[in-house]
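Entry:
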Amino acid sequence: MVSKKSRSEVRRKKHMKLRNRFSGTAERPRLAVFRSNTHMYAQIVDDTVGNTLVAASTLQKDVKAELEKTNNVEAAAYLGKVIAEKAKEKGITDVVFDRGGLIYQGKVKALADAAREAGLNF
């Protein structure tokens, strides 16, 4: 009988393959995205020193106050706008996009498109 791997394990393996191909530097940090069942998280990370430069999530009070739900496409788009604004305040314009092993559609795509519209280049 063929056993099927869990979705979380498949995502974890895809993420590790992606992470072996690229990493964030001081000039071009990595925009990492994580999506749970109820919330979304985005971080801009400099992997050379292991620092998180900017972070935003739908758990933050100021973000959550603007949203009706925290796990839909509109929430992801708003989070993309918020992370881009915070990054521009810190002087970050170019990033490498890390989808975290998730499929580039729906919420992940909405976050990426909103971040691009707000001024991030990737």
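The chain has a mean pLDDT of 95.
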